Amino acid sequence: MRPTVHDIAAAAGVSLATVDRVLNLRPGVRSATREKVEQAIERIGYIRDVAAANLAKSRVYPFTFILPSGDNSFMRGLETEIRAAMRRSAVERTAISLVTVPPFDVEALERALDDARATRPAGLAVVAVDSPIVAAAVGRLHRDGIPAITLVSDLSVSTRDHFAGIDNSAAGRTAGSLMGRFLGTRPGPVVVLAGSMLVRDHRDRLAGFRAVLEADFPGRTILPVLEGHDDPAEAERLVTGAFVGHPDIAGIYSLGAGNRGLIAALKMRRTEAPVCVIAHELTAHTRSALKDGLIDAVLNQDAGHEVRSAIRVLKAKADGQAVLSAQERIRIDIFLKDNLPFDDAAPAPEGDDI
Amino acid sequence: MRPTVHDIAAAAGVSLATVDRVLNLRPGVRSATREKVEQAIERIGYIRDVAAANLAKSRVYPFTFILPSGDNSFMRGLETEIRAAMRRSAVERTAISLVTVPPFDVEALERALDDARATRPAGLAVVAVDSPIVAAAVGRLHRDGIPAITLVSDLSVSTRDHFAGIDNSAAGRTAGSLMGRFLGTRPGPVVVLAGSMLVRDHRDRLAGFRAVLEADFPGRTILPVLEGHDDPAEAERLVTGAFVGHPDIAGIYSLGAGNRGLIAALKMRRTEAPVCVIAHELTAHTRSALKDGLIDAVLNQDAGHEVRSAIRVLKAKADGQAVLSAQERIRIDIFLKDNLPFDDAAPAPEGDDI
DNA sequence: CTGTTAGCGCATTCAA
DNA sequence: TTGAATGCGCTAACAG
């Protein structure tokens, strides 16, 4: 059997309570005693049984998740995953609050962060808009000792404890590399459809995409970036306009949301010349466009993994534990029509094991 | 607070022991009593606290992992991950035994399975060679009530409880699709380098690759498959021979191991004509070849994820619990030189958080 | 400053 | 066939 608190107590010649004080860094122990106990811990190779500790504490973790409202499919998928986690709350000892704020609205986000802080959760996860105001609100959480992590989109400079999301520069580079290779020698410029330069993930993707095209595929022109604010209607208008202005477009990289509009524009297009399209996030829309050959590749981040990872990391931070970094790395999934996972065009039945 | 066994006992008007007997399907309860308790459980919505149960039982999970010996980089990486899991044993309440057997050796694998069974582990994971003999040995585990899962390579027909690995057909299709698109209009045949048709993952990849090339890229010839038995020297010889016999080769799909040999052959080649190379498994060798442009894409399965997933699933099976299927789906990672994760050319320092 | 004691939710003797 | 009592490893009152 591995050593327990009793063994420490015996080895150090003190009581359980004192051992507990040392283990949990509680005050009220003479430094000589503390040292004695610490040496005993070291000597017998004690490892705390977290499950037993949580049992004794009847620990529950109140967490708050903040994400953008609106009909962005990816964000709604993220919300679905959070709700799935809420259903697991009893088993996982969590109590999750879900808050939504208008997209790209810095002040609303700041208010939401401050309101959440007032409830003193054990941790908070937020899809960040990259602004000093938001960073300051996150800083206040940090000041109050509340672990805060960014989800999907990070802050450039902040005191957040962790980022649960993909490497967006790498995603942009990957898109660039695929675009360049898929196009081969086919002539024509490429156009980038972004959501907003206010969010860091979009900026990073753009930079990565640009860098690879310029370095590895010189001669391929990139048209001025279209900013569609993740809005399908606006995206459709912008893309349709681009086709009119540049009938020779060879490729489109959609690095934000609003892909419904992009797909509509692609369907409306009355030309035979093929366009290579790379988009982000596997949703019902991009999935069917991929199958139909309207989209060539989709880069995806697994919202379920992100939510589960966020919860694991928040728990670890709340307990001052280390995280398994390899387990928490969110992958950039690349989907072609050939490796689409199980079909969830039909929504999963209620209460299943997702 | 969520209901506990005490609440059940009170609601049913019986003692804790009786509740426990019903909960754990133990004998010695009158069916009338049993029914009373079951109704109480249903009525108050009881959910068992697995952590508390494990604490009371001082539960440890003895698991056995069986994998091929030899210098196959991927398998050694898998072993590294298993050893990392062994180091986490104290925390995760596991006791993992690691057994290696010569690759592609059906009889040795059968013996290892039977030997492992004799130790009566709580679960077993095996990198399977696809043979009825192996399937029968797995069947004996099943008969004895020992959960058994296949790892990396599955059995075609068996009573294994789970497969922890990628969808190899999809992987092959993906390779085919990438190959076809990367090559574009470049002429020339493609060659497939496999390990052995005795393992199911290799067969599945080949079938998927073939299917896509034939359907979506007709006119692209596939040369007869080279079988290198995952041996670098043999692979090098075969690939070099192919280059001599077919100087116009446009692409190579290496769907097994032995990539060191492939890379050596590529380096030796004295032609300027580009060859599109797609391989499996990110190792030190394929990583550097990817960086150098010798390999265009690497399809990878995350060995760490597979091992962690195997352990989670085995625990769940041992406890008769459900698994989060979304969490256990092993992804097909696609790496280009542009989205390589952290560099582990230098082995990670001992005892780090991997 | 330190120790005693009683749980947390569940499993498992041992009696009845 | 049923129940009372004890303990898993740890925390948290409450005394001393």
Query: How would you sum up the global shape of chain A?
Result: elongated
**N-C termini distance of chain A:** 36 Å
Count of folded domains of chain A: 3
Helix residue percentage of chain A = 40-55%
Tally the beta strands of chain A.
11
Approximately how much beta-strand content do the residues of chain A carry?
A: 5-15%
Order of helices and strands of chain A: HHHHEHHEHEHEEHEHEHEHEHEHHE
Q: Work out the radius of gyration of chain A.
A: 25 Å
Which CATH architecture of the largest domain in chain A would you pick? Answer: 3-Layer(aba) Sandwich
Number of helices of chain A: 15
Main sheet specs of chain A: 6 strands, mixed
Largest beta sheet: strand ordering of chain A = 7-6-8-9-10-11
Q: Give the largest interface.
A: A-B, 49 and 49 residues
Structural class, from helix and strand content of chain A? alpha/beta
Give the full name of the CATH homologous superfamily of the largest domain in chain A: Response regulator
Low-pLDDT segments, ≥5 res of chain A? 344-354
Mean pLDDT value of chain A: 93
Protein name (chains A, B): LacI family transcriptional regulator
Keywords (chains A, B): DNA-binding, Transcription, Transcription regulation
Pfam families (chains A, B): LacI (PF00356), Peripla_BP_4 (PF13407)
InterPro entries (chains A, B): HTH_LacI (IPR000843), Lambda_DNA-bd_dom_sf (IPR010982), Peripla_BP_I (IPR028082), SBP_2_dom (IPR025997)
